[in-house]
Design brief:
Heat Shock Protein 90, globular
């Protein structure tokens, strides 16, 4: 098992190739740190959703990500300078979409249901989303 005292950090733009590269780096880091596969997979899937939302809808140019590995999983901290937006509040679709043309809003549901614990804060003109993943 690797030393997990030092946090793992990434900066990710909304560019598809940048997101894919970040997902691979995060997956590799979590595997090397001994995070259970199902826990790591949830964190990796959520990374894409959070980054895309921040860049496409919030106007952020990049998202800073910090990962802390813990005994039972990991905590992923997302920060961006986009518009204020709390993905943990508000309405979202609870049911499956009728067609692929009707998938909007499901990403917020994915974020909320994938994390074991989550918090959002607006700190010094930045969005700060903290998601804990445990198995």
């Amino acid at each position: 098992m690797m030393d997990t005292a030092v946090p793992f950090q990434l900066r990710v733009s909304g560019d598809t190739s940048d997101i894919v590269a970040a997902e691979k780096k995060l997956q590799g880091h979590l595997e090397e740190a001994g995070v259970p596969g199902i826990v790591a997979s949830r964190a990796v899937v959520v990374l894409e959703e959070v980054v895309l939302n921040a860049c496409r809808h919030g106007g952020a140019t990049e998202v800073e990500i910090e990962v802390l590995v813990e005994d039972r999983g990991c905590t992923v901290i997302f920060e961006d300078a986009g518009k204020a937006f709390d993905p943990l509040s508000g309405q979202f679709a609870e049911t499956a979409p009728a067609s692929m043309d009707d998938v909007g809003g499901r990403g917020l549901l994915l974020i909320r249901r994938s994390a074991t614990r989550s918090t959002y804060a607006r700190v010094e003109e930045r969005n700060r989303l903290v998601l804990e993943f445990t198995g």
